[in-house]
Amino acid sequence: MNRDIPERLADIGYVRRHLSYLRLAGMTWEEIGAQAGMGRSQVHSIYSSASAVTYSVARRMLAVKVPERQSGWMDRAECKTEWVARTAADMGLAHSNELFIPRREPGEPGRTPVAYTLLTRRICNLCEVREQCLQYALDGEERGFWGGHTENERNAMRRKDHR
Questions:
Q1: Each residue of 55-81: b (16+ CB within 10 Å) or e?
Q2: Rounded to whole angstroms, how far apart are CA atoms 47 and 19?
């Protein structure tokens, strides 16, 4: 009997990080979806989902190239400075983005979300583009720590604005 073998699952964390880099480079969910041959909602659900994706979906997402960004507010962000990169490296992180968009989900062993939140909040308090960063995250439903606020804090802001 010939049965279809289900496709293997890819590492969702790697796909999410790539999507984060695309968003940091200024791409919209629609632009990412168009290049991957998917709709905006499908791309965003992959980004916000806790479940794994198939290798074929992961390949489509990873094929989207990170564009050259125009110089803008993100280039002036405190999180892009050398001292933040050195701090992240001293903590054993591969990239400073992992301070703001943790590799693992909160609560998983090996990460201390409270310590990360305290450090990232201090970094954001020094930042000259904090307001632009917060607005970017509120508009784009970004994961992680943006504009001095956690995802939960930003979700609360959105709910308050919709009342």
A1: eebbebbeebeeeeeeeeebeebbbee
A2: 7
Q: 109-144 pLDDT, tens per residue?
A: 444 467 778 889 999 999 999 999 998 888 876 778
138 CB-contact burial (10 Å; exposed 0-12 / middle 13-18 / buried 19+): middle
Rounded-to-integer distance, Cα 83 and Cα 52, Å: 34
Residue 35 sits in the same domain as residue 110: no
> What is d(CA 128, CA 27) in angstroms, rounded to the nearest whole number?
22
Q: Per the domain annotation, does 40 fall within a domain? A: yes
> What CATH number is associated with residue 34?
1.10.260
Domain finish residue from 43, 62, 81: 62
φ/ψ of 148, rounded to 5, equals 85, 10
Domain hosting 31: range is 9-62
State the total domains in the chain: 2
Q: If we measure between CA atoms, which residue out of 56, 51, 40, 68 comes closest to residue 16?
A: 51
Which tens digit of pLDDT belongs to each residue from 33-59?
999 999 888 888 888 775 677 788 888
Report yes or no: 133 and 147 within 8 Å, Cβ to Cβ: yes
- Token code pair at residue 74: 């993100």
